[in-house]
Design a protein that fits this description.
The protein is of the alpha+beta class. It has helices at about 5-15, 40-55, 65-75, 75-100, 105-120, 140-155, 160-180, 195-210, 215-235, 245-265, 275-280, 310-320, 340-350, 355; strands at about 370, 375-385, 390-395, 400, 410-415, 420, 450-455, 460-465, 470-475, 480-485, 495-500, 505, 510-515, 520, 530-540, 545-555, 565-570. A hairpin with a 5-residue loop joins strand 2 and strand 3. Helix 1 (about 5-15) packs across helix 9 (about 215-235) and helix 7 crosses helix 8. The longest helix has 23 residues, at about 75-100.
Length: about 575
């Protein structure tokens, strides 16, 4: 949309004094009534516990020594743990100051934390900071911080001293608006992944709150809308997020936060929800859970996740087909290790009592199968008569997807929310993780996935290394998925499977994985030799985790088959 038209729409509707944050048709409420305490009672208790815990210790400082750790070693967590704790403190103190307006301790803590964030050398993470550039960086977290402070300024209103109001305005101007308008464009503005949505959505949201001049605001929004178009171009018509569920929750979440604000600011005249592709993206969440909180965690996704109930309720309001999940599945407040303000406040404000009540009689996730043709994922959920819930997911795709793993042909198998054949998901983010050695890391290379090893070699990285779908079908009784991934392979095959459970050789031709149930892996013992190896790596949070590779090595004396048959059968 052209800037002139955006400006015309903004000027027309700003005269009506429309509010930006509230979801649905209600008007902006006083800060003490922003959310329903009865349906948010448990969440508010969690926030209060966090705030009270944080108040026992001083706010941690982002020192020069911490900042230098990444540049000197490639290690991210040392700085990021402190940075994210500071954001969690900001969120907790402000929310509790809004919840308990008479509590001076919370208010003082909130004001001090706002001041401290404004004092930070940079709002960027060191991993995203370019020391050799004269241009001020705008990364995911600097954009999020500007969005957060702009919204906090609105919510605290007159309780925020004039000095802090002016400080927020000045810092967001100098760190976001001025570089965006005068030093851009930035690389993320044309990205087709989460960066475009988070950065552009956050800059756009902050601009709606703080920029009063409609001409200047329309300049920002014209580029923001272009970036969001680029973000949507990264999705096919199936709505699947190739980056994985957690990046759907993150990137699409920020798309929604901004889209909802812009829709309200323009009385629906600019409606970023009004396409079928956005509807399909909104439906992705309910397709990719294998159990109550276990996820089809292809790419850089973690194996479990809670639900952002505010985001789900907002999407249900836009699209009736979107399921509002059972309230028991909501994400705990402390689960977001990055301490993001936008989802935290909306998990309070956007939850609707009538939608939450409507979930009580529903199954947690319906037993249904999907084939997502653009990403070549088959997702299958099955509920048995004996009460068991089983899930299978497999992927084709290619080896140059966003947050790519070399995993063409990989699959997972879950029962009752437990992984029997697993995806390791995201590893620990370091400079190496996003550098030339990315695929030497277990979680990223094909050596850490349930795919064949050919002549001792693993899959290669690049869009040319892809699957061809031979068959993909789902019906009430049977799901079928056949891929051709072997055209460049040699003659010596090892079939590899990844599991967190100890594989046991029960007898020739059968391996057992024992969890809450038993999974039997049946194979032809005359052709295949099973080899179990204990492995470990470092997970996303920097903690060592332990798991196993179960390799079936082809016996060299026997001719290599065109088809390798392995039968996976749960005990009845």
């Amino acid at each position: 949309m052209k800037r002139e038209r955006i400006q015309e729409i903004l000027e027309q509707h700003r005269k009506k004094g429309l509010t930006l944050l509230a979801s649905g048709g209600e008007t902006q409420k006083p800060s003490s009534q922003l959310w329903n305490p009865s349906i948010n009672e448990q969440l508010l208790e969690e926030i209060k516990r966090e705030a009270d815990r944080f108040m026992l210790t001083p706010n941690p400082e982002l020192t020069y020594s911490l900042f230098r750790v990444y540049g000197d070693t490639g290690e991210r967590l040392a700085y990021e743990r402190v940075y994210f704790e500071r954001r969690k403190r900001l969120n907790s103190y402000v929310i509790m100051a809004l919840q308990e307006p008479g509590n001076a301790d919370y208010e003082v803590a909130a004001l001090n934390m706002i001041w401290s964030v404004c004092n930070e050398f940079t709002w960027c993470l060191p991993a995203h900071f370019n020391e050799g550039s004269d241009r001020l960086d705008i990364d995911l977290f600097s954009a999020e911080t500007g969005f957060a402070l702009s919204e906090i300024k609105l919510l605290l209103g007159d309780r925020l001293p004039d000095l802090l109001r002016r400080r927020i305005e000045a810092e967001v101007e100098n760190r976001l608006f001025r570089p965006f308008l005068e030093q851009g464009p930035y690389g993320w503005e044309t990205a087709d992944h989460n960066w475009a949505a988070v950065c552009a959505g956050s800059v756009g949201a902050a601009a709606l709150y703080l920029i009063e001049d409609s001409h200047r605001l329309s300049q920002v929004l014209e580029r923001v809308l272009h970036s969001l178009d680029c973000y949507l171009s990264g999705f096919g018509n199936d709505g699947a997020c190739a980056e994985g569920y957690l990046y759907w929750q993150y990137g699409f979440g920020y798309y929604v936060y901004f889209a909802q604000m812009l829709k309200r600011a323009t009385a629906g005249e600019i409606n970023l929800f009004a396409t079928n592709k956005v509807k399909e993206i909104a439906l992705f969440q309910q397709k990719c859970f294998t159990g109550s909180s276990t996820v089809v965690n292809f790419s850089d996704s973690r194996p479990e996740s809670g639900i952002f109930m505010g985001l789900s309720c907002c999407l249900h309001q836009e699209f009736a087909e979107v399921i509002v999940p059972d309230a028991s599945l909501r994400a705990e407040y402390a689960a977001d290790h990055c301490g993001r303000w936008a989802p935290a406040i909306r998990n309070l404000m956007w939850v609707k009592e009538e939608w939450m009540a409507a979930t009580e009689s529903k199954t947690i996730w319906p037993a249904v199968s999907y084939y997502l043709s653009n990403v070549q994922w088959l997702l299958s959920r099955h509920a048995s008569e004996n009460g068991g819930n089983y899930s299978f997911a497999a992927k084709g795709g290619h080896n140059e997807e966003p947050h790519n793993h070399n995993d063409v042909g990989h699959f997972i198998l879950h029962a009752d929310g437990q992984a029997y054949l697993a995806d390791l998901g995201s590893g620990k983010y370091t400079a190496k993780y996003f550098g030339p050695e990315r695929y030497s890391i277990w979680s990223n290379g094909s050596q850490g996935h349930s795919v064949p090893i050919i002549d001792g070699s693993h899959q290669q990285n690049g869009a040319a290394f892809r699957a061809a779908v031979m068959e993909a079908s789902t019906n009430a009784s049977t799901d079928k998925f056949a891929l051709e991934i072997s055209s460049a392979y040699g003659h010596s095959i090892t079939e590899r499977f990844i599991t967190f459970l100890v594989p046991e050789l029960a007898e020739e031709g059968r391996v057992i994985l024992t969890g809450q149930r038993q999974l039997f892996i049946n194979y032809d013992h005359q052709d295949w030799k099973p080899v179990v190896t204990a492995r470990s790596d470092i997970d996303h949070y920097g903690v060592e985790r332990f798991w196993y590779t179960l390799d079936f090595e082809w016996k060299a004396a026997v001719e290599v088959p065109l088809i390798a048959n392995f039968i996976f059968q749960f005990e009845s």
